[in-house]
Amino acid sequence: MKGLTPIPSKLVTLEEGTFHCTYCKATTEYCFKERIERRLLVFIIPIEGDTLETFVECQNCKKHYPADYLRRTPTGDLKILEAIKDRLLNGQSTQTIHDDLCRSGVADGTIQKYIRVALGIGKRSCVQCESVYHGSVIKCIKCGILLSSKNVQDAPSNGG
Hints:
The chain is α+β, with helices and mostly antiparallel strands. It is 23% helix and 36% strand. It contains 3 helices and 6 strands, in the order E-E-E-E-H-H-H-E-E. The longest helix has 15 residues. The radius of gyration is 24 Å and the shape is elongated. The N and C termini lie far apart (66 Å). The relative contact order is 0.12. The C terminus is likely disordered.
């Protein structure tokens, strides 16, 4: 276009948070960034154009990852989820699993996410101690009483 002169692109931070960087192997801060094309209109007014790229940047090592990196489930996470699901199917309560993961240094928010995913929608709760179990478990390990046959839909994932 006539009158538009290219100028250096602009980098915009769209989101910030915490993630696990597989390069520096640390749980650290990230920035989700977008690089925007810019041009100067008649040498005075900067005009922003199309997005040139989006990426996730580790704030520890500055490594760039594809924009969909935060939506991926790393292989390690899949192994943890499988282990949690096995423990749930073997009758352990979400609280026991939560406490074990907490002692091993996993962040509470991450534990909650893992348990919610592994537990699925079918869960049961003990009416006496409020421990939460997988829907296939019929007896509370803590109290020894039979769990209600009615599945609990919105029980806290670290209850009891």
